[in-house]
């Protein structure tokens, strides 16, 4: 086959970190090539289950909680309660376990419904195993600090670009009003519904 530049836009089923692409004629164009994070995007991002309860309390954790009435299971967007950390310091976090790897495109936050407490800014960390976390970084390689809330109930949305592909996400408060209190949702999609744009890479017989 002659050398040529090929650009594909395909919908594929993702298996772990590898995938295969089948051409129109049935030939395999690419097989078991790792996906660069920035090349993965959701075709139709949706809420991943915090507000709806599809993510159960058993898959929500936090660095601390004020008491059982304000634990991580209450840190859901538009809930009557929220997650409240025990101490207010920059070592606190709210962790979401999606159970499977997910493509995360956006994070939504609110403050405490019945008091003037909210998170003003935060960072995001992600992990495959729930043990080793990496902090999401900005264009210059620094930890990206996202703007949070300025009142109790307004929903503040922050886009992740590039997206994050991971099983675990942590929202890590960096500044707050009165006390660390948060409700959250995450938008994105689960593997199997991602759209991947490929340039001329990973296709040694065609590039």
TrEMBL record:
InterPro entries: FA58C (IPR000421), Galactose-bd-like_sf (IPR008979). SMART domains: FA58C. This is Partial. It comes from Paramuricea clavata.
């Amino acid at each position: 086959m002659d050398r040529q530049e090929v650009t594909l836009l395909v919908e594929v089923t993702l298996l772990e970190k590898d995938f295969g692409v089948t051409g129109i004629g049935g030939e395999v164009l690419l097989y078991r090539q790792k996906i660069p994070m920035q090349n993965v995007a959701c075709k139709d991002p949706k809420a991943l289950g915090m507000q709806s309860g599809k993510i159960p309390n058993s898959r929500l954790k936090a660095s601390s909680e004020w008491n059982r009435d304000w634990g991580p299971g209450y840190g859901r967007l538009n809930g009557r309660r929220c997650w409240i950390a025990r101490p207010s310091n920059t070592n606190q976090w709210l962790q979401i376990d999606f159970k499977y790897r997910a493509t995360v495109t956006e994070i939504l936050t609110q403050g405490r419904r019945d008091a003037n407490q909210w998170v003003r800014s935060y960072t995001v960390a992600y992990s495959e195993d729930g043990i080793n976390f990496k902090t999401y970084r900005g264009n210059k390689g620094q930890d990206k600090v996202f703007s949070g809330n300025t009142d109790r109930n307004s929903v503040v949305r922050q886009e992740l670009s590039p997206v994050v592909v991971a099983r675990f996400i942590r929202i890590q408060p960096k500044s707050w009003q009165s006390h660390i209190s948060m409700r959250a949702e995450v938008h994105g999609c689960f593997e199997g519904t991602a759209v991947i744009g490929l340039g001329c890479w990973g296709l040694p017989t065609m590039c």
